[in-house]
Specification:
Length: 197
Amino acid sequence: MANDNKKRTIEMKKDSVLKAAIRLFAEKNYEATTMAEIAREANVSFGSVSIYFGNKEELFMACIVQPLEEFTKSLLDFDTSPKSYREEIQRFILKHFELFSTQKVYLRLLVQVTGQYERFSEAFKVVNEHNEKINNKVSQLIVNGQQANQLAKGDAEKIAIAYVSLLFGLRLSYADDPSLENWNQFAEIAMRLFGPK
């Protein structure tokens, strides 16, 4: 029992360190953030940060990789061969917009990695692999929808890239959160990319 409590406490501290590091790296950038600041923000000792995550570079990588699996899983949660492509696309667009509206800090960190891909080459490689998974699944849905004659003809890969770019671009374009009305208007624009019939 005491061992379980200790494990739970360690996991809670690790989670606190990770959340603090994501926020600080996103707000200040990698170079301007120190391990000591992260420890203070997470309310743990400096030594604990190193024990849990190693050095600053390893912690930064953990900040990118650990949330990315769940983030990508949420983005990939759609059917590539639905009965109604229009309905499925509307459903996942709204879900994706909601996800992007709630992940502002983490997305800033992802943009930092993609914007400085040479500096963060290992993290960029992981992010790019996940991005390709998303593009490939969206492309497959488009190809299937075109074959079912429910979506207009077009280059499925380019449409998928345009859609994912729209998601990231909207998140970057607004310092504050867009209103619900704006999100709904953007959802209509996103829907047009797919060319539903």
